[in-house]
Amino acid sequence: MSAFTVTDFPAFYEEVHGYEPFPWQFELLKRVVEEGWPELIDIPTGLGKTSVIDVALFAAALGRVQKQTGVPRRVFFVVDRRLIVDEAYQHAASIAKALRTPEDDSFAAKVAAALRMDGDIAGTPVEVTRMRGGVNWSWRWVERPDRHAIVVGTVDQVGSRFLFRGYGVGEYLRPIDAALVGTDSLIVVDEAHLSEAFLASVRGATTCDETPAPIRPVVVSMSASPEADIANVHGITEADENHEEASKRLKAAKRLHLVDVPTTKANTAKVMPDALAHWARELHRKHPVVGVVVNTVARARAVFELLRTDRESRCVLLTGKIRPLDRDYLLANHYERIRAGRKRASAEPMYVIATQTIEVGANIDLDALVTESSSLPALIQRLGRLNRLGDQKTVASAVVLHGSADSDGVYDTARPATWAWLCEQGGTPLTHSQKARLPAEPGMDVFPSALRALVRAMPPGQWATLREPRSYVPFLGRAHLDVWARTSPIPINDIPVDFYLHGIERERPQVTVVWRDLPDDEKLWPDLVGLVPPTSAESIELPLPYVRRWLRGETGGDDISDLEAEHLPDVPVPPGGRSVLRYRPRGSAEVVDPAKIRASDLVVVPTSYGGCDEYGWHPDSREPAIDIADLAQPGVRGGMTIRVGPSLVRAMETYAPDLAPEVAAWVERLRTDHQDAPAPDPTLSLQSTLSKPQPGQDELPHLTMLRRLTGSSRGRLIDHIDTGTLLLSFGTASFREDTTAAGSSISSTKLSLVVHQQEVAKKAEEFARNLGMEPEVIRAIRLAAIWHDEGKRDPRFQIMLHGGDRWAAAASDEPLAKSGMNPSDRAVFRQARRRASYPGPMRHEVLSTQIATALLADVPDVDHDLVLHLVASHHGRSRPLFPPVIDPAPTTKIERDGRPIEVDTSRSVDWTSPGRFERLNQRYGRWGLARMEAVVRLADIWCSALSEERT
After folding, report:
1. Strand ranges (DSSP E) for 67-125?
2. FRET pair for 11, CA 20 to 30 Å: which of 82, 120, 762, 900?
3. Domains (ranges, CATH) in the chain?
4. SS3 track for 395-420
């Protein structure tokens, strides 16, 4: 295949998206190739900032062709919002699709070939994912450490993973995520003025760590902040100003009118929603699609309730406090009517009520806009959703309302300062009344070029008074990194990372909330939820203080916004309130009262509590929420488990009423047949045709689930007797269970220990070689991979893998690595462990490390510390200690290829490990060491998954 150069980027871009890039995008690529990434990208809203992703991938492909080192493999597009319409994700998905199925000899085919790694047989060379809170949103978000990936996520999710404390991530998986975020990565932070604490922490952490410079993350800010004291800035030029399409967007006609709303502290909560609804109706007389953007979720809900009574118009509420699955259905019903590029001639009358969630990453195009006063950067972003593409034939109108006695709220002093500045520019505001109409005067020009000129003309220091206040970022040094690098066990004096993601003044502890159908008997809650672990698709991240208030039955006063970096007042924590289940991924779950909930917890509440509807968080609602766990499962890579029962039926009745009767009949048949026959056919035969999604659209969750159920013969029915739950499980992979002695070894496929370790060693060596690791490091990785499961040679472990049958284990020709038992049936391998007398908490890595120590005595010229650490940590433990375990009958000798090796399983704690761990962190860097661990661990996971797929 012929080569390609920088000059081919416009052709590649047009192949992927159907139109050429703007001049600034092409110039950015040339700059990256010649000089490296700029520190700041300063581009007006509406000019395709998400195309930074295209630039990154094309530059990476060029780097691969030219065999450059230090080329970022993973692009993180970070936005400090709860994303609703995620333009960046859709944009990235379109690139991945073009690279997955390119035409022969196209530039997309050349880029795809350059990005594909040796040994990677996947359909696409680039993985794309969204990173949100919760558990199992897909922890295997990158299958291979050498594969290119695009990740769209929030500051909390990306930042916590970078600092080894991934929110919603079990402690044993945190090193993998830290390695994937903290090495071989490009981190692009959109609207960086909202994420200064995060930027400072990432840059500070990388400069005081020994991770080699070529693999450290490249950090790029995107912001239109005129106060930035940065020399290395990339922006638009005269070529963009004169570009036909770019010029149309930069000069899109829109006018701003100011309205002062007389309020008092006592009546603001009622007067402001009434005023916002009034002006929305006023603009709606001439403009079909009117947006109302407000500063808090509660006010958005209040305006929505007022406007949804207008029978002539649709009404939709968009906030970030919504379950992602509900968001998918909401957008499926409404997005085509409000997206940029829609046909305006046939526009249906509609109100769009939203919070800050549409300010960034939302490709929404409004005909008119009503907004509360805010900081100037927030207002500029809101105006960017108005006549976004400049194709509106009439002048787009915007109205800004300012409550005279309204709280400054999330924007602090920036809100009144911005209002005063607007009055200086646009003249005396109109006073609101129920009879008020738009004045005859044209209003203030607020098209992007005009706003840009006004901002650039500000006197020095004024911008700082009109933007959100900066938060104090505490000092970050090597001692902090040493604490965070210790992921197992977590130090007792752990340092919260939230301060370093958002600053101290803006601390806002969050919890993740999931709604499930749970019985009155709270003792059953842990087992019921554990059968189908929570996923991010069914969860909402909410401020901890307000969740506690809601659980205690207190309503009103929840003045929360969709700003991630939001300051919340201290709220007392009295005892009492409705119980919740505090769920820990791959760990224990316990029922607690609200006072015991802590920041970053995931809590599961009964649907009977209410508090959630189709539009998201609704603390005043007493209507039962819908349990959507069964519809949320197909998004979890590695398997799907649904509950065959009433919860599934209710979810279908809510989200797909046309298919619900057939699903209900199938549930009834399966439950009845299961009582009469030991293995009824679980296949779902739908008479209805399952509609396929339009090109470029995601399939709705219920359709994904039904396709899995229809015509599949691989589903396994499991009757969980303790809870009376009937489960249907598909493709459950062994690596999803890693908390017990044998959890990672219970697989539907029997696999030889020698064969498995050889496969892992081959794959790990492939990963390391593709990553450009040094030959001596590759050798250490290979040795660690080929010895990582040696501890499974313990005779008791082999009996356990043979189902507890001692005779079968003794008769086996070779030791096993995987058992061949059903991984979904936990009772089977619990019984096998008891029969084998294998201590439940015992880790086979302990014995593997002792065996590797003996074997290394004959191996010169390799980093023994590194080999031993990679063996010990290949399930995320021993960073720096294994958990202490008392072995009542220790194993003292292991036979390996006829060679006896002295061991002692009573020594579960290796006191040489902490010193070894510290030396390796200093030698390779904290993220550099985690990267080596990720190579071994992801190779192990890859081979384990592949062995199951063969069945």
Report:
1. 74-78
2. 120
3. 6-244 (3.40.50.300), 253-466 (3.40.50.300), 506-619 (no CATH), 640-725 (no CATH), 734-949 (no CATH)
4. CEEEEEEEECCCCCHHHCCHHHHHHH
C-alpha 63/C-alpha 72 separation (Å) is 9
d(C-alpha 675, C-alpha 661), whole Å: 22
Amino acid type, 506? R
CB contact at 8 A, 107 and 13: no
Strand order in the sheet with 539-543: 539-543, 510-516, 602-606, 580-583, 589-592
- Identity of the amino acid at 469: P
Peptide bond into 880 cis (omega under 30): yes
pLDDT tier at 725, thresholds 50, 70, 90: confident
Q: What is the pTM of this model?
A: 0.87
Q: In this structure, what are the phi and psi dihedrals at residue 411, rounded to the nearest 5 degrees? A: -100, 0
Burial of 461 (0-12, 13-18, 19+ CB in 10 A): exposed
**In contact, 782 and 766? CB cutoff 8 Å:** no
Cα torsion for 217, 223, 225, 228, to the nearest 10°?
Answer: 20
Contact between 606 and 696 under an 8 Å Cβ cutoff? The reply is no
**Residue 733 near residue 823, CB atoms below 8 Å:** yes
- Residue 528 and residue 517: Cα distance in Å, rounded? 9
Query: d(Cα 736, Cα 717) in Å, to the nearest integer?
Result: 18
Between CA 254 and CA 396 the distance in angstroms is 4
Dihedral (C-alpha) 306, 310, 315, 317: value to the nearest 10 degrees?
0
SS3 category, 586? coil
Maximum C-alpha span of the chain: 96
Q: Where are the alpha helices (DSSP H) in 308-387?
A: 324-338, 376-383
| pLDDT at residue 281 greater than cutoff 60 | yes
**Tokens 């080894």 label which residue?**
164
Answer with the residue of higher pLDDT: 507 or 799: 799
pLDDT digits (tens, 9 = 90+) for 825-862: 667 778 888 999 998 888 999 999 999 999 999 999 99
Can you give the length of the chain in residues?
Answer: 951
pLDDT attached to residue 195: 87
Give the pLDDT confidence score for residue 695 in this predicted structure: 44
- State residue 238's pLDDT score: 94
Structure confidence by residue, pLDDT tens digits, 291-345:
999 999 999 999 999 999 988 889 999 998 999 899 889 988 898 888 888 887 6
The DSSP bridge partners found for residue 606 are 516
Q: What is the pLDDT of residues 431-445, one digit of tens each?
A: 999 999 988 888 899
Residue type, 219: V
Distance of CA 932 to the CA centre of its chain: 23
Tokens of 681: 């056919």
Q: Which of 802, 517, 795, 832 is nearest to 647 (CA)?
A: 517
In this structure, which amino acid lies at residue 488?
A: S
Which among 38, 491, 461, 46 has a CA at the least distance from the CA of 245? 46
CA 60 – CA 111 distance, rounded (Å): 9
Report yes or no: 153 and 167 within 8 Å, Cβ to Cβ: no
Burial of 757 (0-12, 13-18, 19+ CB in 10 A): buried
